[in-house]
Amino acid sequence: MAFKAKSASETKAAELALALARIADREGAPVSIGVEQLRRGNPRLTPLAIGQMYRKHRDILEADLAERGYVLVDYTDQGPGRGMEFEVGAA
After folding, report:
1. What pLDDT digit, counting tens, does each position of 12-62 carry?
2. Rounded CA gap, 58 and 61, in Å?
3. Do 57 and 75 meet the contact criterion of CB atoms below 8 Å apart?
4. Phi and psi (nearest 5°) for 52?
5. Long-range contact list for 20-28, CB < 8 A, 24+ apart?
6. How buried is residue 50: exposed, middle or buried, by Cβ count under 10 Å (0-12/13-18/19+)?
7. Torsions phi, psi of 35, nearest 5?
8. What's this model's pTM, rounded to 2 decimal places?
């Protein structure tokens, strides 16, 4: 199989999955992870980028989390200024 370069948004989706997995490793699963926790670990993950990565590359997020032994249980986005939150559980 030929190597396919990842787009910038695919790379950012992988970074989001890694950040979610690191927080789940540290705090234990199941865990609720808010945008502020993600931004502390990776400032490039802005709220806009996080929402776009979830909608556009959910398959990448789920696959990368599964590789690390986690599952994406839920995602809520309450709108601008109200926050978003991921629920990550153990696979």
Report:
1. 888 899 999 999 999 988 999 988 888 887 888 888 888 888 889 999 899
2. 5
3. no
4. -65, -40
5. 20/61, 20/65, 20/70, 20/72, 20/86, 20/88, 21/64, 21/65, 21/68, 21/70, 21/88, 23/88, 24/68, 24/70, 24/88, 25/68
6. buried
7. -65, -35
8. 0.83
